[in-house]
Amino acid sequence: MTSTENNNNGSDETQKTKLIFEDADESMYDGGDNNADVADDITSADYYFDSYSHFGIHEEMLKDVVRTKCYQDVIYKNKFLIKDKIVLDVGAGTGILSLFCAKAGAAHVYAVECSQMADTAKEIVKSNGFSDVITVLKGKIEEIELPVPKVDVIISEWMGYFLLYENMLDTVLYARDKWLVDGGIVLPDKASLYLTAIEDAHYKDDKVEFWDDVYGFDMSCIKRKAITEPLVDTVDGNQIVTDSKMLKTMDISKMASGDASFTAPFKLVAQRNDHIHALVAYFDVSFTMCHKKMGFSTGPKSRATHWKQTVLYLEDVLTICEGETITGSMTIAQNKKNPRDVDIKLNYSLNGQHCKISRTQLYRMR
């Protein structure tokens, strides 16, 4: 793994993804969090909108060429989707998607942004001469009122780490149900989550096993937390040991809010003899309403994005031979205390020549 830390230019502490590993305790899912403490009361929900007030996180996203250029190409090369249409930009940020739409001939664009960046977006819109086409509305989608009863297009860059972290998808679905005209479109309209497995001995030794012997002292009790440190990072494609499995495809134009919580089986087939230290999740996004299907991937073998990949370290090191399979299931659900966080339950088994194991691990992204 490329040992880079999240660099959100000032937003790192508010946007950090943490995986909280616990034993297989069903209380995570039944609302009884026996390990909760005072610190749990301060979560990403408290900082979410404030973090997007800082220009640094927007700079990072705008400089993500894969992300921003894809949206630009979708809009400019498929103007029939936008021209003379009323567009709602959900979570507009600096207003870049609204500007693309205005330039593509939208009749009007309503750019909704809850953070203080809304005030800056108004300045940007004015500076670029689009004040008559773009109206920036400051507030939460769930609380504002649009000046129009319906919109023709909803566009949003709602995807978070692990696709679902931050739960902005629910906001898009709320907007869709309330304002999208019958026959209207959502951009993007498809998103798929994938899983694969990697060898990552060096990084795991450096970040996790380190605690076994710290200047001659046993600090192994910290390993539980060490394995839960922010693991949004860039994975080298050469580290991939197995094939990839699609866990879930979501149709944003049709799905219900609850569909983002699910259990999906997986079967990963080893492509070579190796050790496995972690599972890695990534996602693809598609715009299927274009003349020609467009989209991008955040996978390890694709051009890097600011989403990178999400690494879930396993408690055990698995020794696997080519052709052997890791089978299991992954359950993903909104955290009940803070719906912007994601609870992950991983069941996995390997019945191989050199390794036989079956285990359940729980993680929490927050």
Helix and strand topology:
Elements: H1 12-15, H2 27-30, H3 44-51, H4 55-62, H5 65-76, E1 86-90, H6 96-103, E2 108-113, H7 117-127, E3 134-138, E4 151-156, H8 168-179, E5 180-187, E6 190-198, H9 201-207, H10 223-226, E7 232-233, E8 245-251, E9 262-269, E10 274-287, E11 294-297, E12 309-320, E13 325-334, E14 342-351, E15 356-365
Parallel strand pairs: 1-2, 1-4, 2-3, 4-5
Antiparallel strand pairs: 6-8, 6-10, 7-12, 9-13, 10-11, 10-12, 13-14, 14-15
Helix pairs in contact: 5-6
Features:
six-stranded antiparallel beta sheet, 366 residues, 32% strand, alpha/beta
Tell me what the structure shows:
There is one protein chain. The chain has 366 residues and is an alpha/beta fold. Helix content is 21%, strand content 32%. The longest helix has 12 residues, at 65-76. InterPro entries: Arg_MeTrfase, Methyltransf_25, PRMT_dom.
Describe the largest sheet: 6 strands, antiparallel
**N-to-C order of helices and strands:** HHHHHEHEHEEHEEHHEEEEEEEEE
Shape: elongated
In DSSP terms (H or I, runs of 4 or more residues), the helix count works out at 10
Give the CA-CA distance, first to last residue: 22 Å
Secondary-structure-derived class: alpha/beta
Brief characterization of the structure:
The chain has 366 residues and is of the alpha/beta class. The protein has helices spanning 12-15, 27-30, 44-51, 55-62, 65-76, 96-103, 117-127, 168-179, 201-207, 223-226, and strands at 86-90, 108-113, 134-138, 151-156, 180-187, 190-198, 232-233, 245-251, 262-269, 274-287, 294-297, 309-320, 325-334, 342-351, 356-365. The strands form three sheets. Strands 6, 7, 8, 10, 11 and 12 form a six-stranded antiparallel beta sheet that branches. Strands 3-2-1-4-5 form a five-stranded parallel beta sheet, with helices on both faces.
